[in-house]
Every structure is written in C-alpha cells, then in structure tokens.
Amino acid sequence: MKRVFTLSDKAWHGSCLQYKWQKTLGNYIAVAGPDSSVKIFDRHGQKRNELNLPGRCLAMDWDKDGDTLAVIADKSSSIYLWDANVNKTSQLDSGMRDQMSFILWSKTASLLAVGTAKGNLLIYNQQTSRKIPVLGKHTKRITCGCWSSHNLLALGSEDRNMTVSNHEGDTIRQTQVRSDPTDVQFSVMKTDERASPGESTVSVVVGRKTLFLFNLNDPDNPIELAFQQRYGTIIAYRWYGDGYIMIGFSQGYFVVISTHIREIGQELFQAHNHKDSLTSIAISQSLNKAASCGDNW
Predict the structure, then answer these.
(1) What whole-number distance in Å separates Cα of residue 107 and Cα of residue 186?
(2) Which of 9, 34, 35, 177 lies deepest, with the highest CB count within 10 Å?
C-alpha cells in the first residue's frame, strides 16, 4: 500500500524547494523554501519544528548518524544546529566575516566543512568543539564539495580550481578546470585490472558539459570526458558498481559509461526516457535499480 503526504505551505507555492532526508534513520525531512525558514517534518508528514532564520536558507546537511541538522542562512555568520534527539536548535558562531556559501558533514566523523563566498573554509569538529579556520583556501566562492570515507575534503570554487584537503584543512592536491565546477564526488576509478586502493578519484562536472576525473595518485594526468551535444547539459551523475557512472542530461537522456581504462568514456547504455527534460537521477545499490524523473511528472 502506498502512502503519499503533501507538505503544503502557501508561502512556498510555485517555488523551488531545498530538502534533505535525515541520514541513517530517515525519520525526518528538512525542507527550505524562498522564505527565511526551514521546516522539519517526520515521515508521516507532521511538522516537528521550524527554524526561523535571519535570511533565506543557503544550504543544509545532516550529520552521518542523523542526529544533527546544520543550516547556513543569508545575512548570518551563525551555523544553526537542530538536534533531532531533543528537538532543540542551537547556534554556532562561525567566526567567518564573509557570507557562508557551502556546508557539508563528513561521511564517517563528526566533522563539518563550511565554505564562504570569498573562498575561506571552516572545519568544525563537533566532538571536540574545535574550529579550524582556513583563510584563502580559494580566491572566490566555494560552491561544491565532498568528503571521502577517509576524511579528505574536495572543494570546487568559482575560481575554477579544485582542492583536496585533509581533515585539518591542509591542501594536499590542487588542479585547475576550464569552467565552473559543480557536483564534486569521490569514488574508485578502475585504472587497470585491479581497482585503485580507496577512494582515489575525484570527479566533478565542468561547465555542466564535461566530466573531469582527477586521480589523486596520478595528479598530472586528469581525464576530461565530453558527450554528444544533443544530450544537452549534465544535470546529475552517480557512481555505482565496479567503476561505472550513470549520467543524466537536460534533454531527457541518460547514459552509462565505464571508467575501466580500456573502456574509458565509452557509452555502455543509453536511454531517452524523457521527451522534453530530465531533472534528476538516483541509484539504489541494494535494489540494483536506477530511477530518473523529468517532463514535469
């Protein structure tokens, strides 16, 4: 039996919404609209709390256990933390003087990365309450990033650079890309018959047209993959399986490519399931299924 809940708010009607499901448990979903609030609903559609912010929500993320939701807002230097266990909100002073633009919890530790509009970085350890400010990590707005399972932090910026740092904020790799980077991900790329040890590859969409693969063990030889122009721009991509990538494009196509060195960039599968547009894709490793949506339905 399917159950559908509509989370309605007149102030949000016709607007684009941000949302984040609670990690691990999936009991809560946090939703932000164009106004200065973040509403938290349980999985039955009941509102549990509402965070009233000084400006619109810029970004939010749940920690690895789903205990804490972190939110950054326009016109504020505070990080708002909602504790799911006690249903309480607290504020953490970031100490950053410029506007925050990016926030992301580590996959495996109580580490929170916060990027700013001027390229500065803050790493906050929730367990020890230690804050590590890193000034000048980038020269322009930090727009995207990803933590590896070993707590390396890859960041993309409007300065068209990508950095990889350790959990102390020290840069260990840096590379330049040809256009604005979006959607940074860590994964394992097949370089020969054996996979590279650990998440040694950082992938990033460049200018919404190409996919840039940066091997941390071979930083001087990045790979940039281009696609057929009729596909449109890259909307989303997901790594899965043994070094494969599924990519969704704006004109309704999605393709599967391999990162095996003998097949690099080769299209293994293509579908055009959406006539006019594709807006998102998702992959369930446990179900071994992929989903795509578009065409306004």
Answers:
(1) 11
(2) 177
Average pLDDT of the chain is: 92
**CA 292 vs CA 2, 100, 209, 241, 256: distances in Å:** 19, 31, 19, 18, 13
Q: What does the block give as tokens for 95? A: 């100490």
3-state secondary structure of 52: strand
Query: SS3 sequence, 126-181?
Result: CCCCEEEEECCCCCCCEEEEEECCCCCEEEEECCCEEEEECCCCCEEEEEECCCCE
Predicted confidence (pLDDT) per residue in 69-120, tens digit: 999 999 999 999 999 999 999 999 999 999 999 999 999 999 999 999 999 9
pTM: 0.92
* DSSP, res 102: E
What count of other Cβ atoms lies within 10 Å of the Cβ of residue 229? 9
Alpha carbons 235 and 280: distance in angstroms, whole number:
7
* Cα–Cα dist 100/292, whole Å: 31
Do 115 and 142 form a contact (C-beta atoms < 8 A)? yes
**90 is written with which tokens?**
């607290």
Q: Which residues contact 275 (CB under 8 A, 6 or more apart)?
A: 252, 295
Residue 82 burial (CB count, 10 A): 24
Instruction: Tally the C-alpha atoms within 13 A of residue 197's C-alpha that lie toward its C-beta.
Output: 1
